Amino acid sequence: QLQLQESGPGLVKASETLSLTCTVSGGSISSNGYYWGWIRQPPGKGLEWIGSVYYSGSTFYNPSLKSRVTMSVDTSKNRLSLKLTSVTAADTAVYYCAGARVDFWSGKHHFLDPWGQGTLVTVSS
Amino acid sequence: QSALTQPASVSGSPGQSITISCSGTRSDVGTYNLVSWYQRKAGEAPKLMIYEVTRRPSGVSNRFSGSKSGNTASLTISGLQAEDEADYYCCSYAGSIAVIFGGGTKLTVL
Question: Which residue in A4, A35, A113 has the most chain B C-beta atoms within 10 A of its own C-beta, making it the best mutation to test that interface?
Answer without folding.
Answer: A113
